[in-house]
């Protein structure tokens, strides 16, 4: 598929041929959802912890005799039934990560890129570079390309461009090596440089 290439002033800078097996697929929501669930599970800290009845520092001496009091039978103050007792089936420190085949992860990224291309939310820039660190000037130029939140992907970011864009609320920068399904779907517009397109096509081919 062919796509128009723009410069930072939203003017035409030629065309680029995108690989159909990466950018021209019919998006499959099930594949995209599987990869996003895998990503979010992998980044969970898993540090939640609550004490069980075996970890509560309370006496384990029997309160009162087993029979004859008219009350229920209890053997410890640390039982989950009582205030200050342990938590039944408490969460413990653990990893939420699970395995996902590499082919599925690759397919999910291809379908996420294809979904942006299909919705006309994919923009290709000839280059992402500026002469000086000017946040306000860059914001005005990027607003000409898209007013919505955008994810900008480049092979290796120009230092002036990265410093100018880092304080913009609706702009996120990701190197081509770190491009992932969650970030693509999280932002309204995907902006890729020609260098990023080449790197992604080489990575996914």
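-> sequence recovered:
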């Amino acid at each position: 598929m062919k796509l128009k290439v723009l410069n930072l002033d939203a003017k035409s800078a030629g065309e680029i041929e995108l690989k159909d097996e990466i950018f021209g697929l019919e998006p499959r929501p099930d594949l995209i959802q599987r990869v996003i669930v895998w990503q979010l599970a992998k980044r969970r800290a898993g540090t939640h912890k609550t004490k069980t009845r075996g970890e509560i520092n309370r006496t384990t001496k029997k309160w009162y005799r087993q029979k004859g009091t008219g009350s229920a039978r209890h053997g410890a103050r640390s039982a989950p039934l009582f205030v200050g007792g342990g938590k039944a089936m408490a969460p413990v420190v653990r990893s939420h990560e699970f395995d996902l085949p590499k082919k599925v992860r690759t397919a999910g990224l291809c379908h996420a890129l294809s979904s942006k291309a299909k919705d006309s939310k994919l923009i290709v820039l000839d280059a992402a570079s500026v002469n000086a660190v000017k946040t306000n000037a860059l914001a005005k130029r990027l607003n000409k390309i898209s007013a919505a939140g955008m994810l900008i992907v480049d092979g290796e970011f120009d230092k002036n461009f990265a410093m100018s864009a880092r304080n913009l609320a609706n702009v996120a920068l990701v190197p081509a090596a770190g491009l992932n399904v969650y970030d693509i779907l999280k932002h309204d517009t995907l902006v890729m440089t020609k260098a990023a397109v080449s790197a992604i096509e080489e990575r996914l081919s």
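The beta strands are 2-6, 12-17, 122-125, 150-154, 171-175, 189-193.
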